[in-house]
């Protein structure tokens, strides 16, 4: 009996050790926001920033526009890495919610948007995501189209940053407005899968490519493993991305 207890204790300790090692490893692998991104995630005269365990919320100081943006991070990317373009949109009046997922992996909970919609009583919203985050955002949008009651808000559109939907997030027959933005120097995005995924998008999807932009440039967190070098600065890619998103958002009539 004593031996069984000892074995149980050792197994428990071993499991805890493995979990701790895994957690520390994931944390060390996570891409952290640049100093400029962190600076953008601070209060200004144009917006305030609320940070919780679930979200980084950019709240416009002027009367907010009708549509809020809910954004899913790329795999192992701290959500504050997207603060530069998010803050610029907030300055224009758009409430922006940069969602935090467990372990910085959107695949852990594709339904986080529901929590944000309910917590902040959001009415009209647009969902988007970078890389893996875009895949999970499309799955949520797909489910929302099938069952509009999964949250109390009204989904108006979806945008993909270096991302695409899979079969579980097919939006082929959607009436949502869809934007897909890529970078010409993206070394991470699987181009074959990206092209194949177009069959899951509506025919009127708006496609835009940032010349010289790469995968990591959709956020601001430094170089990413497997990515190609950008031929434009991160500042320039952020500027173009913001401009592209802002132009598209204006079509919603806010």
UniProtKB/TrEMBL annotation:
The organism's place on the tree of life at top rank: Bacteria
Residue span, Alpha/beta hydrolase fold-5 domain: 68-238
SUPFAM superfamilies named among the record's database cross-references: alpha/beta-Hydrolases
Keyword Repeat on entry: no
Protein name, UniProt field: Alpha/beta hydrolase family protein
GO-annotated molecular function: hydrolase activity
Keywords of this entry: Hydrolase
Keyword Hydrolase assigned: yes
One Pfam family hit: Abhydrolase_5
């Amino acid at each position: 009996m004593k031996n069984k207890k000892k074995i149980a204790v050792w197994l428990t300790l071993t499991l805890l050790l493995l979990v701790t090692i895994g957690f520390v490893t994931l944390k060390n692998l996570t891409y952290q926001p640049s100093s400029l991104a962190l600076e953008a995630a601070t209060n200004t005269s144009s917006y305030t920033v609320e940070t919780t365990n679930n979200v980084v919320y950019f709240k416009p100081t002027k009367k907010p526009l009708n549509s809020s943006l809910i954004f899913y991070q790329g795999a192992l990317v701290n959500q504050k890495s997207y603060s530069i373009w998010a803050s610029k949109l907030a300055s224009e009046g758009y409430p922006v919610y940069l969602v935090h997922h467990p372990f910085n992996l959107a695949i852990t909970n594709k339904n986080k948007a529901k929590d944000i919609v309910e917590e902040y009583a959001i009415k009209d919203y647009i969902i988007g995501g970078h890389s893996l985050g875009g895949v999970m955002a499309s799955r949520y949008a797909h489910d929302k189209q099938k069952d509009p009651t999964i949250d109390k808000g009204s989904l108006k559109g979806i945008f993909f940053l270096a991302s695409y939907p899979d079969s579980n997030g097919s939006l082929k027959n959607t009436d949502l407005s869809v934007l897909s933005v890529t970078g010409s120097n993206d070394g991470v995005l699987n181009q074959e899968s990206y092209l194949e995924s177009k069959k899951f998008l509506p025919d009127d999807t708006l496609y835009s490519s940032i010349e010289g932009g790469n995968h990591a440039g959709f956020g601001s967190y430094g170089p990413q493993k497997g990515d190609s070098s950008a031929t434009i600065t991160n500042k320039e890619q952020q500027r173009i991305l913001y401009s592209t998103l802002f132009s598209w958002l204006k079509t919603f009539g806010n």
